[in-house]
Amino acid sequence: MTRIVAGSAGGRTLAVPPKGTRPTSERVREALFSRLEHLDALDGARVLDGYAGSGALGLEAASRGAARVVLVEWGKVAADVCRKNVAALGLRDRVDVVRDRVEAYVARPVVQPWDLVLLDPPYDVPDATLAEVLAALVPALTPESVVVVERSTRSAAPPWPAGMHGFDTRAYGETALHLGALSPDPDDA
């Protein structure tokens, strides 16, 4: 059973697609969101949850104070589950579900930058695809934005593109969380 860990929807259960997804465990989500709250990355944030699956990461962000969340999921069944979870939690006013490939979605121009990006791609997504997604995000971020990439501990660190850098990695069993941000501009030093 997958539940929202904390916040306004804390303890509420989430539907999970019957196959093809790997929901982030409660333990990992609890650790991640504690870290994000410490970084002041949630309150009032605009959040992109790419490769949303059940929407657990983005919905956890909404429960904990994010102002706007977009769940991007290509799988039809998973996108339908995301919509069901959004409705069940009463978050339709703050959470949108977009059925699209993450690579295509992030390639579009953004009206407002993302404050927090949560990427939990299937472990078999090639590094080149992840690199493409991360590179497309660079112009859609602010210096305060945080990007989280969830990978297997057996996978290499994310291929951070020019303009971004990783600043923290934490491992929880088979799951590794990599946090990144825009690189400081050397001209500002």
TrEMBL record:
One Gene Ontology term of the molecular function aspect: 16S rRNA (guanine(966)-N(2))-methyltransferase activity
UniProt superkingdom: Bacteria
Respond yes or no to whether keyword Membrane is given for this record. no
Q: What is its EC number?
A: 2.1.1.171
Q: What class of enzyme is it?
A: transferase
Q: Which InterPro entries match?
A: RNA_MeTrfase_RsmD, SAM-dependent_MTases_sf
| Keywords annotated in UniProt | Methyltransferase, Transferase
CDD domains, sorted: AdoMet_MTases
Pfam families associated with the record: Cons_hypoth95
Show the PANTHER family listed in the entry. Answer: METHYLTRANSFERASE
Entry protein name: 16S rRNA (Guanine(966)-N(2))-methyltransferase RsmD
Origin species: Cellulomonas triticagri
